[in-house]
Design goal:
Layout: H1 20-28, H2 33-37, H3 43-74, H4 82-103, H5 106-126, E1 132-135, E2 138-143, E3 148-149, H6 151-169, H7 177-181, H8 184-198, H9 202-219, H10 224-242, H11 245-254, H12 266-278, H13 303-336, H14 340-365, H15 382-400, H16 405-411, H17 415-421
Antiparallel strand pairs: 1-2, 2-3
Length: about 425
Amino acid sequence: MSSTTGPIKGSFKAPSRSQGASGRDRALGFVPAWLERLDRPVTTYYVLIGVTTVLVAFGLIMVLSASTVTSLNETNSGSAYAIFISQAVFAAVGGVALLIASRLSVSTWKKLALPVLLIGLILQVLVFTPLGMGAKGNRNWLDLKVLSMQPSELLKVGLALSGGLVLNAKRKQLGNLSHAIVPYLFPMAMLALGLVLMGHDLGTVLVMAAIVGGVLYTAGVPGRWFALSAAGFAAIAVTFVVTSPNRLGRFDVWLGRDTDQFGPARQTIHGRYALADGGWTGLGLGQSREKWEWLSEPHNDFIFAIIGEELGLPGTIMVLALFVVLALACYRLVMRTNDFFVRVATAGIMSWIIVQAMINIGAVIGLLPVIGVPLPFVSSGGSSLVTTMLALGILLSFARAEPGCAKALAARPSLVKRSFAVLPKRRSRA
């Protein structure tokens, strides 16, 4: 009689030690097919492409819907589509930037890291020359006659890339405070933040600080140093708030001290009206009431309110879900890459996009005071759209360098080849 405790005979082969838990699950048949597909090397690449495409396309639709009244009343074109056409042009430019960025190698981005930051710093200095222009108390624009741009958007890209480059070179000395902060935090990052802060653009400074924090945290800088840095930055932010009547007024609105819907509280109150009017199902695409000059910046900072008004709760949840998926794709890239530069730079770009989205949405729904930053990919604004699409192109370049991704992409036939493959072959004449 055979022992019941002996080895089971058959075709089953135990997974090797290198397979890990996921390998054992696949061998035992515990992993669903769809979940196994997510573990492929090309998953990050295609998820980033998909999320970016949906966000940009959805943003164009919502800018068209939200900007028609503003285009008629505030532009000299006499067309209801002026703002939308401008945004579509910038989306096309951003698409070219994304395509070019995605085809560059990781080594090329390492070489471009410091030049991108340097160009951003030079352009930011030019803001304080006659070429610069201000809006709503902030001086953060360059008027180049042909077009206007925000140099601070390019600084965001430079901070993420240069952080990866510098901290990669110092990765073995990051336990030492002097090596952790010099030269990335001082003088590089502080110079960039200081120049933007001189233009009184506190919202952009908060986003840039999030990039620096994400870069340093991912690089492995000890967490105890973040508390001291956060305290110092908070003191600077509070100083800028209490010394600016405009910002102090926004805090009064946020705290409920100012509820005058014809004064500083108008934008906040009508943003909430828009969300309340939308309710569960929304009023329908293009049917917003608040965009008829009730809500300020309906196509820009408060476009999330128009989304809620026209598309209801499903529309707002869809936007939140897209940013969550984007964050998960970035996190997957951070965890799977073997390149320290890629890991740190990806964390910086992820911090930039996700924190900026949180600040924008938080201001619209009342969790945060109105700071004045656009919703990435969705809000109207050429500089923001082009640079965020450029940043996603950089992430696609990093995703292509993920182990096995480039080989898998090269092995797949192109769309043109697949199209010709299904065509019937011509028979040769006798």
